[in-house]
Each structure stands twice: as structure tokens, then as C-alpha cells.
């Protein structure tokens, strides 16, 4: 029975009619054995959590803090990373020619001095192929040795996804792939998904 607050009160000593005393085990009836006050105090002292058990304001910098559990477990690691950027660079001064702003105003509020923009025949899918090739070079892995390609972005090039195109253009002939259209959180979702595939 649960109280209105959602907290279950301690069980009453009385046993309902459906839990009459029988010889041997009593199926369907769960009750923990009586616990002494000393055992309760001992159990409370052993309770742990991820938060620090002491006041952080009085802990010296050299004192170790409890470690949080790892999100990506042992058994997988990043061995290569690649990136690619569009060739066209637009500075804040370029923007100020057709928008009422200045380099100082933008830089003071955002820290941005220039940005890269797709132009001409460049596509996000093409940049993905370049980044994948550079990641393979860094990892010293041949495209034929890749088992899985996860395309973790959203692109207007193909609303149904571009993993197949990246697979073909990079040369991953023995791999399968699929799209994770998670946009901003794509890297995190992709990392977790890849780790599950590696461990599985």
C-alpha cells in the first residue's frame, strides 16, 4: 500500500488473510525479516552515491574526488578523426557590407571573426567523404576493413540520408551503413551506437 505522497509506509505486523501462515514457503507474500536498530544504522552508514560526501568548500585541491561512472565503457576508443571545411570564407567585414553591423560588434558578442560557407558545387555530403577519408588515414585503416558507417548529421542534399553515398565514395566495400539524423546531438548518438555495435 502506498501513501498519497508516493512513499510506502513500513509494513504492518498484521498479515492479511491471503498470507496465512503455512508450512514451508509462502508464495506470493514478500516480507523482509525483522531488522534490528544496529543493523539499520550500519546499512545507513554504507549508503553511497556519486555526490561528494563532504562539503566541497573545505576540501583541499589535492584531495581526490569520487569518480562518476563511465558513459562509454571499456572496449572501444577513437583511433582516427577527420574534418573538412568549405573553401569560401566570409569575414565579419564582408558581412558588414550588406548587413548593418561591424567586426567589433560581432566579435565582442560571439567571438566569431569569420565563418565557412558552402559555395559552388560543394555539398555537406562531399565534405563528409573528405572527413571520412582523413579519419581513415589518421587511423591507418583501409576502407575495405571498415564494417560500419554511421552518418550522423542532417543535410538537405538528400532528406532520406547519405550514408550509402559516403560508403560508396570512400570505398568501404565490405561495410553497411545507415543514417542517424540526430542533427546537433548526432556525434553523441553516433558514438553510443558505434560502441554498442563494437561490443555486440
From TrEMBL:
**GO annotation, cellular component aspect:** chloroplast
Gene Ontology annotations of biological process type: fatty acid biosynthetic process
Keywords of the record: Fatty acid biosynthesis, Fatty acid metabolism, Lipid biosynthesis, Lipid metabolism
The molecular function terms of the Gene Ontology recorded here are: acyltransferase activity
| PANTHER family reported for this sequence | 3-OXOACYL-[ACYL-CARRIER-PROTEIN] SYNTHASE, BETA-KETOACYL-[ACYL-CARRIER-PROTEIN] SYNTHASE III, CHLOROPLASTIC
Family, according to the entry, reads as follows: Belongs to the thiolase-like superfamily. FabH family.
Q: What is this protein called?
A: Beta-ketoacyl-[acyl-carrier-protein] synthase III N-terminal domain-containing protein
Species name? Aegilops tauschii subsp. strangulata
- Tell me the organism's taxonomic lineage: Eukaryota, Viridiplantae, Streptophyta, Embryophyta, Tracheophyta
Amino acid at each position: 500500500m502506498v501513501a498519497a505522497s508516493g512513499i510506502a509506509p513500513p509494513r504492518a505486523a498484521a498479515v492479511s488473510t491471503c498470507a496465512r501462515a503455512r508450512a514451508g514457503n509462502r508464495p506470493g507474500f514478500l516480507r523482509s525479516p525483522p531488522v534490528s536498530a544496529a543493523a539499520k544504522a550500519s546499512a545507513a552508514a554504507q549508503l553511497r552515491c556519486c555526490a561528494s560526501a563532504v562539503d566541497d568548500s573545505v576540501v583541499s585541491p589535492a584531495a581526490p574526488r569520487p569518480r562518476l561512472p563511465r558513459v562509454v565503457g571499456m572496449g572501444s576508443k577513437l583511433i582516427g578523426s577527420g574534418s573538412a571545411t568549405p573553401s569560401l570564407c566570409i569575414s565579419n567585414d564582408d558581412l558588414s557590407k550588406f548587413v548593418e553591423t561591424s567586426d567589433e560588434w560581432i566579435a565582442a558578442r560571439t567571438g566569431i571573426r569569420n565563418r565557412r560557407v558552402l559555395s559552388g558545387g560543394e555539398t555537406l555530403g562531399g565534405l563528409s567523404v573528405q572527413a571520412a577519408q582523413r579519419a581513415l588515414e589518421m587511423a591507418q585503416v583501409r576502407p575495405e576493413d571498415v564494417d560500419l558507417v554511421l552518418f550522423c548529421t542532417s543535410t538537405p542534399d538528400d532528406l532520406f540520408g547519405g550514408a550509402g553515398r559516403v560508403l560508396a565514395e570512400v570505398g568501404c566495400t565490405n561495410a553497411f551503413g545507415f543514417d542517424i539524423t540526430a542533427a546537433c546531438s548526432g556525434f553523441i548518438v553516433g558514438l553510443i551506437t558505434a560502441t554498442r555495435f563494437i561490443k555486440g
